[in-house]
């Protein structure tokens, strides 16, 4: 509500700031002896203010939920069928998305050996251990690319084949 000031009106204001909280009090007295007081409380978040005891939150994301920031992509985990495989054994790596992976998710694996074979389902890859792999530490990770354009990388899993 906006009031027009008359020549007999007096305005007084006081401002106090403590840490990141500011309180502004404005008092208006009219010639008829009426007093109106308005309080403005503002914190470090510039979009949230309190006027006359009511909250007015004008954060853009609350005005239009479609403007909300996108959720972080789901977490991705890589698992090895055996971290100490033997010669002739097939080491299988699985790239798992936390929760349900959206349709159209694509997977890729780091392949320091150059010999990983990725399955048709794309979420697994395998490597058959050979004599030359014994005692060599392999480190693998995977990445998931989601239909919305976001990506998420797994941690690393190590495998050290033995004879």
In short:
The protein has one helix at 60-63, and strands spanning 10-18, 21-29, 35-42, 48-51, 54-57, 76-80, 90-97, 106-109, 117-118, 124-128, 138-140, 142-145, 151-153, 157-159. The protein is an all-beta fold and 163 residues long. The longest helix is centred in the middle third of the chain and has 4 residues, at 60-63.
From the structure above, extract its key features.
163 residues, mainly beta, Immunoglobulin-like, five-stranded antiparallel β-sheet, 2% helix
Characterization of the model:
This protein is mainly beta. It has two domains: 10-60; 76-159, Immunoglobulin-like (Sandwich), CATH 2.60.40. The chain is 2% helix and 44% strand. The chain has one helix at 60-63; strands at residues 10-18, 21-29, 35-42, 48-51, 54-57, 76-80, 90-97, 106-109, 117-118, 124-128, 138-140, 142-145, 151-153, 157-159. The strands form four sheets. A five-stranded antiparallel beta sheet has the order 1-2-3-4-5, with no helix packed on it. A four-stranded antiparallel beta sheet has the order 6-7-10-9, with no helix packed on it. A hairpin with a 5-residue loop joins strand 2 (21-29) and strand 3. The longest helix is centred in the middle third of the chain and has 4 residues, at 60-63. The protein is rod-shaped and about 100 Å long.
